[in-house]
Design goal:
By secondary structure, this protein is mainly alpha-helical. Helix content is about 80%, strand content about 5%.
Length: about 100
């Protein structure tokens, strides 16, 4: 409507490529589609980030001299997130095999 900015109108009509242009041509970067790149980084990028977080939490527990129980509690809290990340792939595998 009349409350849209010029940039929003230009995007909607495709002055900068817009949604229609990306749908027709498909974004390709170094021979991979945008969906392939996103899938790779959602799997391996997030996994690498989780491993990095394990290092950070371990270092934090070491520097703060949290002790065994404190370190266990820290990793338990972080482990719930890890289990959610891994459960997604296990559930997805289980559903796709049927």
């Amino acid at each position: 409507g009349c409350f849209q900015s010029a940039a929003a109108r230009a995007w909607r009509v495709g002055a900068w490529g817009g949604y229609g242009a990306t749908q027709r041509s498909g974004i390709v970067i170094f021979g991979y589609t945008e969906a392939q790149i996103a899938g790779f980084f959602l799997t391996y990028g997030v996994g690498a980030f989780i491993l990095f977080m394990v290092f950070i939490i371990g270092h934090l527990a070491w520097e703060s001299k949290a002790g065994r129980f404190g370190t266990f509690v820290i990793f338990l809290g972080l482990g719930v997130g890890f289990l959610g990340f891994l459960a997604k792939y296990v559930i997805q595998w289980w559903l796709e095999r049927r």
